[in-house]
């Protein structure tokens, strides 16, 4: 950022009165409503907003990457030329060369059918007219630049052979291949684990120092903004509601929406239950092993131990946070404890040993143990009304209820999660992500459970909505003395929800203890890395 | 990969055995036999014939004999065309059916892919609607309508093509039957291609390719098409097996001496050995083409690995 500040503050990209419309069956939807944004050479600009704010569509429009039913009006001037009116061949001399872009989805943004080398070489040859051997040398240089180990070998790798973080590095290498003036980074770290997030952000900062391009961060993550951005645009519902120097916006936000965003971090903490509270769920040496491959003439299967000798004790009114990165086995553990997956070891629920209980034996217990999933869009049947969705469990567990009684229970459950009872006659697609997650919670609560496993219930939601859901879950716990297993990779949410934390890595517990102890004094190196990465990104502004 | 192919070929043996066994006994469950048609042979002659072909032996013994002959590559004599063995019939007819079927398949894959891609690139525009209309017509109009229409227009009215016959494999004789065979397949391929191409064009890596400023040709052909081709590859397996083993309707209407008619004729006449021969041939084609498809999959998609 030092060099960025020193660079001439010539405006290289200026978006004027940009409007983006999408033609839909319900008529035109205006996603971006006449905004003005500019980017100076070498600076870092953040466009911040929650989902649906139009922040991504603004940049998609600038790059002519809108979906086929979208159209943009206004102007996007890059060094005196309006990108919106350029011919396709002229535009393609700017895209990928002078302005390039990386995306939120590192797992799917590379072509799965071509090697990394092939995909890197293609834009280099196209924009610089190098021959194959020269372009290959350039590609290797780029892989070294983004710190991909063993680049010679990686040139021949396919995307599926690389991790999400490595793929995002390759994306960055492709974007920087032709020495762009502007790199647009659309939520570049959202899909990555927190330790990888920090690495990618460090890499971007380092590359900006070396190469001096301007970066436009499109993000919902205020931590990134605070740490990296020189200037900020806050967007809401297609409009820029506030803009200014990053420092000023954080110290002295003007617009109510900005203030709300800044205050949206979940706060508070949960007191542990009394020491003599009864134990609701206990697992001893729980193990889950997946078998991969094998079979007739196919050799020995590969055995993967997803959960490795884990013991856990959950008391009434307690919340245990299970923390770990993707692949650590935290969701598998949650499912094994509910007997949704076969496992070895001892599992007790209340005073019953359910280690080997089959479906039949588990059924009467199911109503006491409920599950809420991460994806509020995929976990509600689109063909059932909300009322049907949330009362379905009653049909199984309280078959004697009349239709009227079930309806009454649905009303109560919806009121309890803060939704209008009329919601029960509507369909899930009519609701926002946060409302759907409330519906999913109502579906669990209507059975009056004792244990709820919450599997990343807030990860797919905007920060401000996350906070509301966290508060709802805490209220429900207090009202009903619920026990939660709270599975999450998001440390700030876990800190606000859980009174005890288990840190998992590769199927094993690496550290556990009361929340405050873990946060104030993490012992294990992995926990420390996790904390450092999270705190780096969300709390402090480091000088670059 | 080689190991995988060998394993698949090995597992084909029990598969074939099950198919042969089921076909053999199912056929015998059906009433009647090869020598009791309405014309009626005298009881003595019939008894002689049945004795000669071993049809009086217990069923299990007949099955053992049949299997034994099959293992030696001997499909036995045809009961209804006693001058020929089943092997001879296939040696003569199969190349004809394979030629027609393969030509139709290649035509369908090429034309269908082009049409489907064109439709996808013009989604919800005129070009798309035209392809959809064509595909709907192609898959709803049955071959026994298409074939006579082709004969009528190209053969009788415009005198461009012969009305029928094989003509010792002259190109002009193949046009009609190949077109008739290909049309419904073109429709299916075009529909499949349209769907998978639309999906492929929406995928994130296509957005990346566009953001990198790659040419339309590269975006569409190199990046979108290769991914979109996978459903077509899997469709090609069963389609090839069906097309290459002949079509009763097309071969009958165009008087083509292929093997497509054998299955129906043989089944109606209870020509046991010919039915069994057809079953084995179709089964082998199906197994081989499915294997080829799976191998092709791994060639197109590096994520697919067999070991």
Automatic annotation (TrEMBL), chain B:
Limits of the ABC transmembrane type-1 domain: 94-293
InterPro entries: BPD_transp_1_N, MetI-like, MetI-like_sf
Membrane topology designation: Multi-pass membrane protein
GO biological process terms on file: transmembrane transport
Cytoplasm in keyword set: no
TM ranges: 9-30, 96-117, 129-154, 174-193, 228-254, 274-300
Recorded GO CC terms: plasma membrane
Main location per the UniProt record: membrane
Keywords assigned: Cell membrane, Membrane, Transmembrane, Transmembrane helix, Transport
A matching Pfam family: BPD_transp_1_N
Transmembrane helix among keywords: yes
CDD domains: TM_PBP2
Localization, UniProt: Cell membrane
Family: Belongs to the binding-protein-dependent transport system permease family.
Protein name stated in the entry: ABC transporter
Source organism of this protein record: Mesorhizobium kowhaii
